[in-house]
């Protein structure tokens, strides 16, 4: 029999006064043990086998014991690369404009008045779509996503044109599942846009943001009208989900506005239960406020309020699973076309020359800036801190963009200490394993 060793991805956490849990992040499995066995990792695996064969087999079954010659780190790296290089899916993101009808204080983007896709750039995008569909023989999923700026501005001249073009391809590629996404403030949703989206056979998704309750939201997203933008955006959300369009309601909160978020729950209570199936609530702290007052208890109680009212809560914001489900920008088969034909990867940084990765040419091909693309593709899991981390299979080493910005720093890309890592594990155990038993 092969010699065994303890996995480098084991964690031991106390869960009650007399019991602990051994969790293996690589296999995403756990084992409950009595607390008097907490020194288990000080024993030689062979000693455990002789002393307690059942425990020995249980440890093997959760991946806590592995063959001594196995390179677990390389297996995790290989898994990360296989996910990032998945040829069965493609995400094409379009910025139809860098203009916006709001000027939110926390927005990182440089708004460009009057900017929009030109007819020439639209033709390049059409050719790009053709190239993707013709060349990606293993493609099973194609996500067309609109970002910005506010992507519903100039809709008939920009987004509608691209949607109409890609719909011509559905019958030619019946093996591909097409979907259309919008990251929007929702204010410009109208019957024309709704009816156009409902004309297609693809699935449609929106991410729409509220900035706290009515009072705070209207201060941040000033519509220039007396009634504000809050209820108009809520009406748009209700209209979309009534028509079976999926909506992620992203609630941006701060230490200042968190108490007002409960008011949103009151304002959406009239949504029928059937329509709620199309709505997911996600709560995200505004990044400029991230190092402020600890408001976790308030956030948790607010999430519970929505949950008890039969609204679905987005667990992706709390459950770390970035290696198997990384950011779309980490994927090889992802790119963003700006309104002027410039190519980017990450949507969470400004669309400037520094962050540019290439240009879309007349043939619908990307002229990549090769050295930048190569660095992007090979930057993940390079720091020693990541390579020795016990939750690397959950974290994935952080996204490509964060790795670029912390290049050369031998620190956790997520800023976690050991207590943070334990909390990540406990959150995962409580959401997945406990809920499954219930």
UniProtKB/TrEMBL annotation:
One Pfam family here: Radical_SAM
Q: Which residues form the Radical SAM core domain?
A: 86-316
PROSITE patterns from the UniProt entry: RADICAL_SAM (PS51918)
What family does the Swiss-Prot or TrEMBL record give for this protein? Belongs to the radical SAM superfamily. Anaerobic sulfatase-maturating enzyme family.
NCBIfam families, per database record: rSAM_more_4Fe4S
- The source's superkingdom equals Bacteria
Task: Please state what the protein is called.
Answer: Radical SAM core domain-containing protein
Where is the organism placed in the taxonomic lineage, from the top? Bacteria, Pseudomonadati, Bacteroidota, Flavobacteriia, Flavobacteriales
Q: Which cofactor does it need?
A: [4Fe-4S] cluster
What keywords is this UniProt entry annotated with? Iron, Iron-sulfur, Metal-binding, S-adenosyl-L-methionine
Q: What positions belong to coiled-coil segments?
A: none
* One GO molecular-function entry: metal ion binding
